[in-house]
Amino acid sequence: MAISFMTALDRAALQLYHYVAIVIAGMGLFTDAYSLFSIVPVTYLIGRIYYNPDDGKPGTVPIALRAAVVASAFAGTVIGQLLFGFLGDRLGRRKVYGTTLLIIVLSSFNCGFSIGRTANYVIVSLCFFRFFLGVGIGGDYPLSAIIMSEFANTERRGALVTGVFSMQGFGILFSALVTMIVCHVFEVAQPSGKDPIFPHPPPSADLAWRLILMIGTVPAVLTFYSRMAMPETPRYTALVQGDMERAIVEARRVLEIDNDLMSDVEDHGASMMPPPDQYSFFSKKFFKRHGSDLAACAISWFLLDVVFYSTTLFQSWIYTSALKPPEHVNAFTEAFNLAKFQAIFAIAAIIPGYFAAIMTIDRVGRREIQMTGFLIMAIVLLCMVLSYNAMVEDNRIHFPYLIMYALIFFFANFGPNTTTFVLPAELFPARFRTTCHGIAGAAGKVGAIIGSIGLLWSSETELDEQNDRVPGSGMKYILIGLTAICFVGVVHTYIFTPRSTVAVPLEEHED
């Protein structure tokens, strides 16, 4: 359906506000990545502080408790995506957008606190606040994607939405840098220059991990006012609320739009409004027109997150097997080295993957990038399976294995990790858009829970008999399973994902 006002938005030149919106809208995703990656070195610090055994080895958080810390955040994310996805369509994107960031900031900051200073209190408090952190982050997913999509022009919509998602890469890098700086400062600040390795880290280590988690809130706090000052998206105002005049005013607040087109809208806006809602979300008509697209987005996101979050937590033994044994370094050095590896992977693989997607998504197409990403991830994982015994030997991981691991992240981001975020922001009517994005994202986080918890249990319960830091055959079977899932992703994308949303106006789906 041709709507002149929407055409004006679609033809608007790329301008400063689009870039500002990327930063503002991406800050929740930035904090999401910060939380996910900073929890790895933080967990190692907590293990050495609160779980020191009597056998002379550094302590570690028990596997069941680590699983709880991971699952609590993902469970909250599922709820947040469903809840705020629904509210975004009912109340408006802007009305609930500040709420999600406020939840993120408060929960992330409170992750650094605990009711007491015993192991149980620390873990319970961490799980509690990470659950609500997940709720805020989950709500931010659909709102950030849709706000950017509804402000974007047609030509570069995919790149702009991907730009929002790419803030995750910078969140990963920032978390690594903060962890390195905090650990280095605390280590050199010890009276002797270094803390004793045994029997316990110094008391300051308990403050260090808390600071690492709290500092992650700073960028989000700095953008809070800007988020609250954002106008409602003109598409929501016009197409859902039915107020074309206000939509024009709000669009002109932040965007420069062709005056000739805008004059045409002002003269004929009332006659160009879409027809009123004719069916509800739970109607047969919705599922007939949009059900297949929603299922395609949800299943693709589910498959991707099983693999992506498995390989994200896979980093624990990849890193530690390539570093000095924990009994040979102090707590700060161990956390510093883990963060250093995270920074290297972020710079070498994760951020370049996002930029490759930004440069190509509006030229190559979403479906093509998603299929290619799944396929190359499957090939790399298959190579890791075939070379497993050769590469994981002498109780260490060989360098080519690290390269293959980095390639998984590159082609996840230059592939389905990005497209699963972009596609639900384009395929549905404005009145259902955040709801559908939230459902697709929630399906993904269910996959994340399955993948990450399953990997955590297997990697710890199937350790090599000669070295309890290198997984045994159990990990090889997990890699086989992840390879199969990626091949399923290729086939599913080819059959069910819409062929093209490149340069297609969002209003093509307004029916």
TrEMBL record:
TM region positions: 20-51, 63-84, 96-115, 121-139, 160-187, 207-225, 294-319, 339-361, 373-391, 397-415, 436-457, 477-496
GO biological processes: phosphate ion transport
Domain Major facilitator superfamily (MFS) profile: 21-501
Cell compartments where the protein resides: Membrane
InterPro entries reported for this sequence: MFS_dom, MFS_sugar_transport-like, MFS_trans_sf, Sugar_transporter_CS
Gene Ontology cellular-component terms listed: membrane
Pfam families per the UniProt record, alphabetical: Sugar_tr
CDD domains hit by this protein: MFS_PhT (cd17364)
Entry membrane topology: Multi-pass membrane protein
Main localisation: membrane
Alphabetically ordered keywords of this record: Membrane, Phosphate transport, Symport, Transmembrane, Transmembrane helix, Transport
GO MF annotation list: symporter activity
Family affiliation: Belongs to the major facilitator superfamily. Phosphate:H(+) symporter (TC 2.A.1.9) family.
PANTHER family referenced in this protein's UniProt entry, alphabetically: SOLUTE CARRIER FAMILY 22 MEMBER
Protein name as annotated: H(+)/Pi cotransporter
Source organism: Rhynchospora tenuis
